[in-house]
What does this fold into?
Amino acid sequence: MATAELRGAHTFNFDPFNAHRDDPHTPLRKARREHPVFFSPALGTWVITRHADVVAALRDPARFSSANAITNVPAAPPPEILEVLAAGIPYEPNSVDLDPPRHTKFRALINQAFTPRRIHAKQPTITALAHAAIEGFAHAGTADLVAEFAYPLPARVIADLLGIPSEDLPAFKRWSDEWLVMIGQIGDLDRQRKAAAAVVEFQHYIAAMIAARRTRPSEGLVSDVVAAVQDMPDPPSDNALVGLLMTVLFAGHETTTSLITNTIKLLLQHPEALAQVRADAELIPAAITETLRFDPPVPNMYRTTTADVRVGGVDLPAGEHLRLSFASANRDAACFADPDRFDLHRADKANHLAFGQGIHACVGAALAQLEARVSVQALLERLPGLRLVEGALIEPVVSATVRGTRRLMLAWDRQ
Ligand code: HEM
It folds into this structure.
């Protein structure tokens, strides 16, 4: 069957950017039952909805390539933006969008920064950062959790991880904000041009940091990576290292913002679960795991078929772009009992796919969960009577790979 005909035969209406932005779960539930593998004209990709099929694709990188793993439909920025970016450092695939054997080399470089011992050692820093942030707004009695806490905290943690000196933190914050504007193609062309110029500055800053760490090693991932590549027989280029370090920032920032926000939001929306967590702080990790299952910050990643494959009963040719829906797999009744119920005590919650699986499984999973645990504990301890503001706008932010909440207005009892 010709590709167009095949797509036509398996079309299903799913548009998470518009019609199904607020509730992607209703169409996905129907799809799991009736069209477990379908083509979405709105997305321009195939969507894989069942847990078993998503796992099979994640576990088979030879036939499901990670090229374009983070893009919905590969689309270059407009020429005006490309012109600005030409003054920067050309992008080279570096980890999440590479297949073995090249992926293996980059993965080894970052793995060393995320060992359990190193992550555990970050706990005092993260705790201090969380409490300092809360100190800044606790007196107000009300705040937007995203702007005041959940957005800045992970950026500070990553800056610490990379070894960014404290005097450069304001610039670092601006660069990471502008990067999201550019990637999200937010605002008019002038706005995006300004954002692209900031990204170029950021690239040169990272490149200069790589060069400096070569002669003056110090603490942090940049220094570790520079030291590790010196011993490699065929080391990656500096341009690829800039891309790798920016990937770490991108992969670990908004995703963690979303995990912190979603956990607080779901607890406040489920008073029974909140009461259980308040009574026993040991349940906070269970609340975080159940949030990852119920409302994953990265609801999907993408793969491209490299050969003819059969998925969920559909024969797909080589070269098709697939969206692996973790959000759908995490609600698959074949894997989770009563999947639409938020339940801290469910035995099956750890089978979620929020961090992927296989060779690309999230390298920052332990760090993200540590940040979320410390944050939830500090927020519940320091903000008594924490509650959602009546009629709080809970507007989803949806990008090609991240789903979160734009604002989360909270109130608490001032002391
Ligand atoms: C709740 C927070 C997070 C979520 C939900 C998340 C989710 C994911 C997922 C689903 C993947 C797999 C991608 C694929 O299979 O194509 C991934 C990979 C990755 N994540 Fe995370 N992530 C989070 C936090 C972090 C943090 C804090 C960092 C680092 C500071 C990080 C760094 C990475 C990197 C570098 C990769 C690529 C690994 C590779 O390709 O081998 N992530 N993440």
Q: What stands out?
A: Residues 66, 69, 95-96, 107, 110, 158, 247-248, 251-252, 255-256, 259, 297-298, 301, 354-356, 360, 362-364, 367-368 surround protoporphyrin IX containing FE (CB under 6 Å). The first strand starts at residue 37 and ends at 40. The first helix runs from residue 3 to 9. The mean pLDDT is 93.
